[in-house]
Amino acid sequence: MVESSSRVSKTTQNLQTQLFNALLIQTLIPAVLMYFPVSVMFIFTFLNIDLGKMSGIATITIAVYPAIDPLPNIIIIRHYRQAVWEFILKILGRKMTVILRKSNHSVPKTTSFQMTTY
């Protein structure tokens, strides 16, 4: 089994690294946006300190969490990032250059094409 784990391709290792980094960031997002603000609010309540308008920050950060949570996957994982850029450029109807990063030498390194919108 040890020998088989060393035979993992560079592509798989790269993808696993990207997924691990995205998971780390996705672990920090709820801590920063949900647990920390609510914990501060509870602590200040127990200490009988009025937060005033600052108490609304916890509500805002909890409401923003579902929109921010998928962003690390979209930004960190290369295939998702490329698909989002292709979609954005397709909507804008601009000429797009895609850089193919494959180990296959028969595929050209850069391919340009015009995207048309329908």
Decide which structural class fits the backbone: mainly alpha
Bin the strand percentage. 5-15%
Which stretches are poorly predicted, pLDDT < 50 over at least 5 residues? 98-113
What assembly state would you assign to the polypeptide chains in this entry?
single chain
Give the number of helices. 5
Shape field: elongated
Biggest β-sheet strands, sense, barrel: 2 strands, antiparallel
Read across the widest sheet, the strand sequence of neighbours is 1-2
Helical amount = 55-70%
What distance lies between the first and last C-alpha atoms, to the nearest angstrom? 51 Å
* Extended strand count: 2
What features would you highlight for this structure?
118 residues, mainly alpha, 2 domains, 2 strands, 64% helix, G protein-coupled olfactory receptor activity, 7TM_GPCR_serpentine_rcpt_Str, membrane
